Amino acid sequence: MQKEISHTQQTGKHLLGLSLDELKEVAVSFGLPAFTGKQIAKWLYGNHISDIEEMSNISKKGREMLGKEYTIGAMPPIDAQHSVDGTVKYLFPTLSGRYVETVYIPEKDRATLCVSCQIGCKMDCLFCQTGKQGFEGSLTVTDILNQIYSLPERETLTNIVFMGQGEPMDNLDNILKATEVLTAEWGYAWSPKRITVSSVGIRGKLKRFLDESQCHIAISMHTPLHEQRMQLMPAEKGMPISEIVELLKTYPAFRKPAHDKQAWHKETSRQRRLSFEYIVFDGLNDSMTHAREIVKLLDGLDCRINLIRFHSIPGTSLKTSDEKRMETLRDYLTSHGIFTTIRASRGQDIFAACGLLSTAKSKDYIINKDERETT
Predict the structure, then answer these.
(1) Running DSSP on this structure, what letter comes out for residue 122?
(2) Out of 101, 136, 167, 277, which one is annotated catalytic?
(3) Cα–Cα distance measured from residue 267 to residue 261, given in angstroms and rounded to the nearest whole number
(4) DSSP code at position 216
(5) Does the annotation count 354 as an active-site position?
(6) How far apart, in Å, are the Cα atoms of 176 and each of 168, 170, 209?
(7) Which pTM was predicted?
(8) How far apart are CA 207 and CA 199, in angstroms?
(9) Pairing of strands 13-14, 70-71
(10) Given 153, 354, 371, 373, which residue is catalytic?
């Protein structure tokens, strides 16, 4: 098993996650030229080094000074579970001494990483195992980026989705810093179109994200009905789905064209995508009444809907809808101008599919794993 996180890692300072301006400040604080900050950024985000000593174009004295106060902050995963469909679920340590799950999903021409932003979650959605875990803390920027930085398949990644453990808007400052590193020229230089951030919708936080980021946004809807959504998702009380939709309609990139559709698509093709996540429950939210209400709710928005199968968790009687009903729902929504897909479940056999992530018992698992490996 991977060694426990050292005291220095837990309490020290970390370079991973710092912006270019912050790295310049670090350099200057040690009496190094400001441009050294740019060199550090290149070593971190371009070369993915594991030790400060690898920064060969920085003086030995400079490296020594940096090394006395800082570490890179990179921590390899301590466990990996492999699904029959190629999905891999990694268990990463965090600087707090806890653990978080991250899911790597390879496909024919792409590879997506499902990143976590919190240990557990406050949202307490009825259908989510992460919510059943409760909330144990938000990840630092270092913790968030380490899931990418220390991923064995990092070089194959084409997309990142913040759909793992936790609610991104509940850790917004660190999400914005992490996505800045991912998209900045001095960082990973990714297009924001390669990154999707999911949210249940939190008043004030969602608007700030929409204003300060160009990454795609995915809203967890799951039902268009207010009272029903409150039963499934307590966050509905704080920011109803109707309020979320009205906010989204104020952004030109998300509005359907009134007249010249071709010109509108040309203008908005470089902008962000809006999608809604919809777990389909048998006999609960899969009726034609729901389909009609979705069409009415999303009228005027240019968006897509991802229908998702429910994966059973303890403590709930919810069941997933059957394939025929999901297809009927998909076809109805598509015929009414809302592009709708049924998302393929990945990694269900290793509890890596949507709604199944949890590290509530990770310490017990690690102890048992250690015992198995030594016998």
Answers:
(1) S
(2) 101
(3) 10
(4) E
(5) yes
(6) 9, 11, 8
(7) 0.91
(8) 11
(9) parallel
(10) 354
